[in-house]
Automatic annotation (TrEMBL):
Pfam families: Peptidase_M48. Keywords: Cell membrane, Hydrolase, Membrane, Metal-binding, Metalloprotease, Protease, Transmembrane, Transmembrane helix, Zinc. PANTHER family: PROTEASE HTPX, PROTEASE HTPX HOMOLOG. This is Zn-dependent protease with chaperone function. Residues 121-196 form the Peptidase M48 domain. Belongs to the peptidase M48 family.
Length: 324
């Protein structure tokens, strides 16, 4: 479980050093921060984002309405493109999933104890951490400079795909913690049920409804980030850095500067970009990984800059948050 104020954060938050006494939360600072939420700290069972299930229910309801409307239109003799798409969606999703899995089977390099052994071990460790009966298959595919990874499934099989460039974070995998976080994130998608056929069919309508659909997918990404954080919290900073600046420039990215901008970047269009995005924008995502006292923001940017009590450098008053 997460530690109370005054306990040894360094033990419960591996990879971080203990901050100096004068920079600890609690006694003498005049400000006591909220405790980390259960499920958001490394020793907890990873939590779903608080909005994920309500948004999933809304997406399933919309999908059911779409099917009822499509069947009714068919009985009335009204045949259109959207009616056909809705009616054949179960087949299209099944075929697409099977084709994606087959492509990895014949073109991907499978992680095994003898090839990409570090990645193989990271997948197994993440699966064990999440209580999965067996680790999913994992493949490496040619990245050609692209930074990406994803999880999916076909039938009863689940698999993770990692682009080859992620094995070169910082050059020749000098930041394996970042890779472990990313792999934990993808295995987390599987552990949270995001790769299920029935889940993908149920949320089918959300793909065509920008605000509801994009919010659901952002909440799922936050959920997967919670899983990645529980596997390798010290890899969160490198993971955000490589997503923002690439595999070789990750070391020059200031994580706190990136996370601070979630609060300081104002205006309609930064908000609008996040609203329509299927992933949380990078600044908000970094802020959520730094602030484990609440779930990541979906619709409104953070109102204050949170200062992690484990950091050795602070901008502003170390006794509390920096408000803007």
């Amino acid at each position: 479980m997460y530690p109370d104020n005054g306990q040894n954060w360094g033990q419960a938050y591996p990879g971080h050093r203990q901050a100096p006494a004068q920079q600890q939360w609690g006694g003498g600072t005049g400000w006591n921060p909220p405790a980390p939420l259960p499920g958001l700290m490394p020793n907890d069972r990873p939590a779903r984002h608080s909005w994920e299930i309500p948004l999933l229910v809304a997406a399933v309801v919309l999908t059911v309405v779409a099917y009822v409307a499509a069947i009714a239109a068919l009985f009335l003799g009204v045949v259109s493109t959207w009616v056909l798409i809705v009616l054949v969606a179960p087949i299209l999703i099944a075929v697409g999933r099977g084709q994606l899995y087959g492509s990895q089977q014949v073109n991907g390099i499978k992680m095994t104890p003898t090839q990409f052994s570090d990645g193989y071990r990271m997948v197994a460790e993440a699966a064990a951490r999440f209580g999965m009966a067996e680790p999913p298959d994992a493949y490496v595919v040619l990245g050609n400079g692209r930074i990406n990874a994803f999880a999916s499934g076909h039938g009863f099989r689940r698999f993770v795909v990692v682009y080859s460039d992620l094995f070169e974070i910082g050059g020749e995998a000098r930041e394996p913690d970042a890779l472990a976080f990313i792999i934990g994130h993808e295995v987390g998608h599987i552990a949270a049920g995001h790769a299920s056929y029935w889940r993908q069919l149920g949320q089918f309508a959300a793909n065509y409804i920008p605000v509801v659909g994009s919010a659901l997918f952002r909440s799922m990404e936050y959920t997967a980030d919670n899983h990645g954080f529980c596997v390798r919290p010290q890899g969160a900073r490198g993971a955000m850095g490589v997503l923002g600046a690439g595999k070789y420039l990750v070391s020059v990215v200031g994580f706190d500067e990136l996370a601070d901008r979630a609060t300081t970047e104002r205006g309609f269009f930064p908000w609008f970009v996040n609203l329509l995005s299927g992933h949380p924008v990078l600044t908000w995502r970094a802020a959520a990984l730094r602030n484990r006292t609440r779930h990541g923001h979906l619709f409104v940017k953070p109102g204050q800059i949170y200062r992690d009590p484990l950091q050795l450098q602070y901008a502003g008053d170390p006794a509390g948050p920096v408000t803007r």
